Amino acid sequence: MARLAEIRQETATARTLVFHVAGWPGHLAGQHVDVRLTAADGYTAQRSYSLAAPPDRDRVELTVQRVPDGEVSEHLTGPYAIGDPVEIRGPIGGWFIWQPVEPEPVLLVAGGSGIVPLMAMIRARRAAGSRALFRLLYSVRTPAERYYAEELRTPYAGLDITYVYTRELPEGRAGIPRRIDAATLNAVAWPPEFGATTYLCGPTGFVETVADLLLSLGHAAQSIRTERFGPSRD
Ligand SMILES: Cc1cc2nc3c(=O)[nH]c(=O)nc-3n(C[C@H](O)[C@H](O)[C@H](O)COP(=O)(O)OP(=O)(O)OC[C@H]3O[C@@H](n4cnc5c(N)ncnc54)[C@H](O)[C@@H]3O)c2cc1C
User: Coiled coil where (predicted)?
Assistant: First the structure.
């Protein structure tokens, strides 16, 4: 049984939850867990959440986005409080993972909360002192909806970050809000022959659109690893 130890508000509607999980076996960046809530009448609900940070003894970090009327996310971002128990199963996943021994360049493409497992990779890279080149392309609606904004403002050697805003630009930034398109990927992604691995994560529609764009630009299907979080509301 896990217990909530710490809460960090990431945005107005997303929070990082740090749990103590006795006997946690450790995990790899990119893996996820299943979180199961049980009500007083025995009713249970279970959802998947990505691990947001590399292993740190019995600490497990998740970042949960509140989905309007969402059965589990509204509870975890609302009444769920320090000391409360929850059942956490995992770690789960063996394909959407990155390990610091891998020297190839890495392109990370996140849509909204899809940044969570990619942040675990960025943090694992830094913790291990890896010199693999990383590029992050992060699509969010507005500047206020960026997760981990402070941490990503601090420069990391070998990590380039590009934000794409779909609804509202930061003050003073020229242009208009837009979505990731072929031109964005041409500008941010390395050419296919560079041999980068892409990790692409976000709402289902976002992942499918970006994966199709990468394929149309000549990136090999086996170089693109995807994780779909669920429906896209746009
Ligand atoms: C492998 C994996 C990893 C995930 N990691 C994360 C994570 O790190 N952080 C995170 O916040 N979420 C993550 N998710 C999504 C998460 O599992 C839930 O789907 C999400 O929290 C909504 O659950 P809910 O019970 O609140 O909503 P529900 O009660 O299931 O659904 C309420 C309404 O919201 C819609 N909806 C359901 N899921 C989503 C969604 N993902 N996006 C938009 N609308 C949705 C439904 O269609 C429905 O209309 C992950 C999903 C998967 C499969």
Answer: none
Phi, psi dihedrals of residue 198, rounded to the nearest 5°: -105, 135
Distance (angstroms) between ligand 1 centre and the Cα of 66 equals 9
Q: What percent of the chain is helix, strand and coil (3-state, nearest 5)?
A: 25, 35, 40
Is CATH 3.40.50.80 the classification given to domain 106-228?
yes
Q: Give the distance (Å) from ligand 1 centre to CA of residue 203.
A: 9
Provide the pLDDT for residue 141: 97
Of ligand 1's atoms, which has the minimum distance to the CA of residue 49?
Answer: 5
52 Cα nearest atom in ligand 1: 8
Which residue owns the Cα nearest ligand 1 atom 47?
A: 231
Count of CB atoms situated within 10 Å of the CB of 172? 5
Decide if pLDDT at 91 tops 50.
yes
Domain boundaries, the chain: 2-92, 106-228
Peptide bond into 91 cis (omega under 30): yes
230 Cα to the center of ligand 1, angstroms = 6
Q: Domain spanning 2-92: which CATH class is it, in words?
A: mainly beta
Cβ-Cβ contacts under 8 Å for 70 (sequence gap 6 or more): none
* CA 186 to centroid of ligand 1, rounded, Å: 30
Expressed in angstroms and rounded, the spacing between residue 184 Cα and the centre of ligand 1 is: 27
pLDDT, one tens digit per residue, over 162-199 is: 999 999 999 999 999 999 999 999 999 999 999 999 99
d(CA 50, CA 30) in angstroms, rounded, equals 7
pLDDT tens sequence across 124-165: 999 999 999 999 999 999 999 999 999 999 888 899 999 999
Q: Considering only CA atoms, which residue is closest to atom 44 of ligand 1?
A: 231
